[in-house]
């Protein structure tokens, strides 16, 4: 299996941690978050990884090298201008027919093999992994009628949404929908392909998932990893 990891961002929401480190090298416990991901991917038979770099690319390439330390092969493509989350796919020449593409800053127990097999079974151009997320509103929410009378008064409601986990499976045909050197995000690419009649599937999962892109979530990830390290890295002693 092949995986593309998007690691070119500046990590501005995670400052000051990312002032001198690229976000993929920020440690969770004593392990960089991207190393956790790579070790998980190896367990799911990923034998080739392409890392898309940009900000502080040299540090990422120096740390991970050719991937032999983890028993797989790592190549790199570098974004000399930001290409967003999908534009970098246009730089990769050796994409396999189907491949994982994911962010390099998530802490998860997602079963990558099951996600990939689901995608192959559905035979679509893309599969998006989803997670249920709750958002709480810290105010009393008012709904009113068209003539300004009170309709509903909901104190501090909580809403649930299905959100993208930042882990997808794509078919190499997706490159037909990316213009040369185009800066385009994965959401826009997905909608562009959908509008052209391509089949895009969704894969909900109740696994553990956390995007560490914000300081608050990064602190939660530290605590979760410390108390449940073997959940994320089963081979750890």
Question: Can you offer a commentary on this structure?
Answer:
The protein is built from 7 helices and 13 strands. The protein is α/β, with parallel strands linked by helices and 237 residues long. The chain has a single domain, classed as Spore Coat Polysaccharide Biosynthesis Protein SpsA, Chain A. The longest helix has 13 residues, at 215-227.
Short description:
This protein has 237 residues and is an alpha/beta fold.
Q: What topology emerges from the helices and strands here?
A:
Layout: E1 2-7, E2 27-28, E3 31-32, H1 33-43, E4 48-53, H2 57-64, E5 73-78, H3 84-87, E6 98-103, E7 106-108, H4 112-122, E8 126-136, E9 140-144, E10 150-155, E11 158-171, H5 186-195, E12 200-204, E13 209-211, H6 215-227, H7 229-232
């Amino acid at each position: 299996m092949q995986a593309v990891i998007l690691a070119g961002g500046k990590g501005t929401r995670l400052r000051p941690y990312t002032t001198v480190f690229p976000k993929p090298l920020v440690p969770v416990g004593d392990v960089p978050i991207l190393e956790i991901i790579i070790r998980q991917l190896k367990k799911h038979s990923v034998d080739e990884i392409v890392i898309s770099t940009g900000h502080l690319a040299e540090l990422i390439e120096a740390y991970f090298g050719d991937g032999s330390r983890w028993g797989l092969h790592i190549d790199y493509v570098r974004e000399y201008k930001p290409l967003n989350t999908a534009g970098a796919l246009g730089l990769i020449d050796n994409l396999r027919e189907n491949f994982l593409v994911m962010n390099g800053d998530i802490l998860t127990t997602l079963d990558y093999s099951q996600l990939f097999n689901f995608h192959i079974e559905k035979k679509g151009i893309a599969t998006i992994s989803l997670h249920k997320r709750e958002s709480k509103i810290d105010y009393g929410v008012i709904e009113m009628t068209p003539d300004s009378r009170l309709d509903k008064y909901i104190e501090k409601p909580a809403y649930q949404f299905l959100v993208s986990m930042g882990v997808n499976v794509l078919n190499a045909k997706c490159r037909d929908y990316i213009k040369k050197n185009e800066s385009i995000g994965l959401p826009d690419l997905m909608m562009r392909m959908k509008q052209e009649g391509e089949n895009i599937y969704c894969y909900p999962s109740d696994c553990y998932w956390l995007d560490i892109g914000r300081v608050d979530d990064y602190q939660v990830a530290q605590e979760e990893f410390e108390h449940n390290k073997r959940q994320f890295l089963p081979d750890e002693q």
